[in-house]
Amino acid sequence: MSEVLNGEKPLFWDTMKPKPTKYSKKVVGLEFEKRVIDSDQDVLLLIYHPLSQKNRGLKQKFESFAETHAQLDLLIGRYNGINESAVYKNPQKLPALVYFRRQPDGSFKEVIEFDRTRELMLRSSTNAKFD
Fold it and tell me: Residue 101's beta-bridge partner residues?
């Protein structure tokens, strides 16, 4: 008690580490339609493999990309391709980068899948190359 009163020991201990701030939104299950298809925002979606060995740090690079572009009117999200998507169940299609762009009249969203991004994203070793 005297060590606490003298300031030698803290009054309490943190039992949990603070959670890191996430700038990209995780899209799961039925949220996909609500957040991606039905929303008024444009959406940039990383569809990733759930095993971290297969991603080679891609989710962390994508998170830093989302942090630097947080001020844009763009929803930057990540989506588990194997567990959540019927289209991307095949691991050969992962990772994928897909852009959902709203039309000016608001009638539908145009879906743009960036070709050849899989090899480029997995090969890039620095954030600058990834950007």
Answer: 110
Cβ atoms 98, 113 nearer than 8 A: yes
Domains, the chain: 20-126 (3.40.30.10)
Q: What is the pLDDT of residues 48-81, one digit of tens each?
A: 888 877 777 778 888 888 888 888 888 898 888 8
Sheet holding 109-113, edge to edge: 25-27, 74-80, 42-48, 96-102, 109-113
- pLDDT tens, 89-105? 777 777 888 888 888 88
Give the Cα separation of 63 and 125 in Å (integer).
15
